[in-house]
Amino acid sequence: MVYQVGSLISLVLHPEEAYSLLSLKRRSMRQSKNRSQDPNWQFCYDSLNKVSRSFAMVIMELGEELRNPICVFYLVLRGLDTVEDDTSVNAQERADLCKNFHKVLRHKGWHTDRYGAGAEKELLENFHIVIDCFNLVAEPYQEVISDITQLMGNGMAKFIESHECKTLAEYDEYCHYVAGLVGVGLTRMFTIIDAVDATFCAREYLSNSMGLFLQKTNIIRDYLEDIEEGRTFWPKEVWEAYGSKLEDFKEPNNIEYGLHCLNHLVTNALRHVPDCLEYLAGAKDRKVFNFVSIPQVMAIATLAECYNNPNVFRGKVKVRRGMTAKLVMRSTNMKNIYKIFYQYAVFIRDRIPTQDPNALQTRQVLDSIIAKCLSYVPMTPDLTVANRISLLLFALLSAYLLHRRKENAGEGTIWRRGGVPQACDVLAVAAFFGVMIYLLTFFGLQFVKPQYSTERSS
């Protein structure tokens, strides 16, 4: 009930997002028609919706050849991740299963009830169904899934045994294992159907950056949840510069130091953005582009919400539903992606506190993102909808006024000379001049390029 009231208030405050929410709902309904009638595949897609609705949505964007393999890929890795995360189970047992998780894919009928809770537990209890579906996808996809699961499982086992990320290098390594490898695996799948630049398999740093950007965003956002569950992913090398214990940042007296640490990690995550933009620009298939662009857009939006936000230490910071829908509906081409990243980079840059010890580094990283996006961004806000409405009104009002003039032929005006003009005619004339003023004043601003100085003061 509280959530519904919050959504209603959000729509009242941001009515322009209502259309995006309705469009996204229709899109979701269309996606549901692509679901297989096979009960095993139905279980897989139902599980996908339960464990991650956001990834389920983008996976359903894919064409038929990629959709099923990537659904299985995600569920296999989600099962592995559930084993790694369940701190209620002995660390050595979890590490052993992580190392051997790729082998269960060839073990028909394997399942377990030892790990997880809720939808994740249900997934592992019925994992034999996922294995059956794994064996139905083409061999090249099976090879990718098995290879990445083995590499990821070994990496996860290493960090189960070491308990934490001590240095930034270890932080990057951990994110590589749990997310960067996902990007590498997906790229290998995409190249099977020539959906991305063929050089991306050799340039793994691009795929890795895609995964690291998403994973670091999640780690930053999930500070409180991880602390309460006994997990620590924020690297010690960073947080010990601001406090003696990571969990102390949630205390009101330590918020200032917590924000410095938070901003440090946001800056670290933003360094991956140029690689992400380069990768997105190399996506050749429209459906694959939508699949890879939406999570990246949501990540930059989430980082913008988290930056210098004390609520990170009080709960999970989220992008509101209406804005999420708007971003999803806009993430359809590279020009829009550049605009979105530009807008959020400027938004974060304008919020950099002058006293923040990382202010200079943050500004430099954001300036590099802004420079990469700048040539694709107009100076004004997006006026596309307003321009289209104004052109439509111009056409309709012109037709109406010409019609009224014809009705009063020979009088020289749209109403008879000496008579009392009708109220609708007066309103039409006023609206026509208003539209003309808009067209002459604002219509062309959409096509003016911005002049953004990277030298301006904070």
Structural features, described:
This protein has 458 residues and is an all-alpha fold. It has four domains: 1-33; 34-160, Farnesyl Diphosphate Synthase, CATH 1.10.600.10; 164-379, Farnesyl Diphosphate Synthase; 384-441. The chain has helices at 2-13, 18-32, 39-51, 53-59, 64-85, 91-104, 118-125, 127-134, 139-162, 168-192, 204-221, 223-228, 236-239, 255-270, 273-281, 286-306, 321-330, 334-349, 359-373, 384-407, 423-441. The radius of gyration is 26 Å and the shape is globular. The chain crosses the membrane at residues 385-402, 423-448. This is squalene synthase. It holds the Pfam family SQS_PSY.
First-to-last CA distance: 42 Å
What's the shape? globular
Measured by DSSP, the beta-strand proportion falls in under 5%
Number of domains: 4
Estimated helix fraction: 55-70%
Task: Return the CATH architecture of the largest domain.
Answer: Orthogonal Bundle
Could you describe the largest sheet, including whether it forms a barrel? none
What is the CATH domain class of the largest domain?
Answer: Mainly Alpha
Mean pLDDT: 87
Count of DSSP E strands? 0
Helix-and-strand structural type: mainly alpha
Write the CATH homologous superfamily of the largest domain.
Answer: Farnesyl Diphosphate Synthase
Unreliable runs, pLDDT <50, ≥5 residues? 1-6, 453-458
CATH topology type of the largest domain: Farnesyl Diphosphate Synthase
Radius of gyration: 26 Å
Protein name: squalene synthase
Cofactor: Mg(2+)
InterPro entries: Isoprenoid_synthase_dom_sf, Squ/phyt_synthse, Squal_synth-like, Squalene/phytoene_synthase_CS, Trans_IPPS_euk-type, Trans_IPPS_HH
Family: Belongs to the phytoene/squalene synthase family.
